[in-house]
Amino acid sequence: QLQVVESGGGEVQPGGTLRLSCTGSGFSLAFYRIGWFRQAPGKEREGVACINISEDMTNYTDSVKGRFTVSRDNAKNTIYLQMNRLKPEDTAVYSCAATRSLHGDCPSARDRWNYWGQGTQVTVSS
How many other CB atoms sit within 10 Å of the CB of residue 54? Predict the structure, then answer.
């Protein structure tokens, strides 16, 4: 079965860190652009970060720039989202997605992504 699976979520205090993982199963993520998205209760899904097949091609939403870093380890077929200096407003379900659309801006529409994970909960609370 071809899928991506997230892991690494949890509950941390404000200012804490978490590292999320997105692992491919049944196919190589090395040939896919990977996006990280989040959705908080009552809010629309938001694109957080995006990494192309070349690791130096990354994008971030403004609210996480300087705090989050997306990277890939093709040997482990895994993409990471390192989240530092977490804030309560970062609380959401975080999902990763894979797309073969490698040109232009990272797609925002859900149907532009070939594979979606189930999501992992991140809670930032004191």
Answer: 10
Distance between CA atoms of residues 44 and 47, nearest Å: 10
Among residues 11, 12, 13, 18, the alpha carbon closest in space to that of 48 is found at 18
* Predicted confidence (pLDDT) at residue 49 exceeds the cutoff of 90: yes
Question: What residues pair up with 116 in beta bridges, in sequence order?
Answer: 97
91-117 pLDDT tens trace: 999 999 999 988 988 998 899 999 999
Q: Which position has the token pair 């199963």?
A: 25
Contact 56, 93 (CB under 8 A): no
Tokens of 1: 């079965």
Which 8-state DSSP code applies to residue 92?
Answer: E
What are phi and psi for residue 110, nearest 5 degrees?
-60, -35
CA-CA distance, 86 to 84, in Å (whole number)? 5
